[in-house]
Amino acid sequence: MSIRKDYKYTFYASYAGYFVQAIINNFLPLLFLTFQKDFGLSYDKISLLIIINFGVQLIVDMLSASFIDKIGYRASALLAHAFAFTGLFSLGIFPYIMPTYTGIIFSIIIYATGSGLIEVIISPLVEACPSRSKSGSMSLLHSFYCWGQMSVVLLSTVFFTLFGVSNWRYLAVIWSLVPLVNGIFFSLVPIPDALSGGEGMKAKELFSTKLFYVFALIMLCSGASEIAMSQWASAFAESGLKVSKTVGDLLGPCLFAVLMGSARVFYSKVSEKIPLDKMMTASALLCIVSYLTASLSPLPLVSLFGCALCGLSVGIMWPGTFSLAAEKIPTGGTAMFAFLALFGDMGCSVGPGTVGKAITLFGGDMNKGMLLGTVFPLLLILGLRLMRNSEYNKRS
Asked: For labelling alongside 186, which of 77, 93, 162, 214 has CA 20 to 30 A away?
């Protein structure tokens, strides 16, 4: 069967789409301390970069529900990859042709627009493709974000070792080729007919559904639990735990990504045997343990283990929320996925932003800042309990 008719190629393009999103969200954090040393950026300014990235994605999530069904999923995918390519490419150029901080911010705004679109369209695209287990397919899809994160850390570490971290701008240009190639791929693959009719709830109808607000809370906490650790893991390992950048990146964010991806692949294999809500509750409890271990242990290696363990604990949260929402609110449609992505990105901004602000308030003490991360999995458990309450399974 040709590439234009076989949905396996749609899955491949979707997997690569999450790889692109991983590049966008995880390349810059590897440079936080470099920016601090070379450009004199404070922790507050670095935190603002994180907030801008996910804040722009949040805005795109909010606006996209009104136009994706109008222009179609293929056009949206092409647009997303065009923004991703342009933003990453400009990251290697803008900071050197305009004020450095301004140049970084402009680049972030451009590629974050692409990332926001990717988040909104890829999950419902895979949900609409023929597959045996929807929750398993969703979990496997999101594992590619993890493999992308791992690849970004590993390959960037190799590049920095061979050519020096001072040449990071060239690597940004190299990474921009991934969305360029996948954008071309997306122009060829089939798009499910179920996505072309614009069916599903409108925003007003969605907001009249009590259960949606519960999923919004769960999604916010999923994003915050994951990104608060992954965004600060490199700087936490290097500065807070006093290990080298190479060791910190490999044992912190890289191992975090490996375990997060492994959790998602594992659940894709056992999704028909283990109830998703129970798996997510267990994951949230493990997440609390991982944050406590990372922040409270006096031993650097044990703290690094806590960072990595967090990856295992958050693996199922984001894709699991999408799957539960699709199951409990089957007519949610594009609007539901868009607004859930919005709340997820809100969490991605609030989580690391809160940790960064706490680090500043505690005089640069990263351990105390990380300790605040426990609040997000605690709230996620509360959300899951509300979901099980029959009162929230009825429309208001």
From this structure: 93
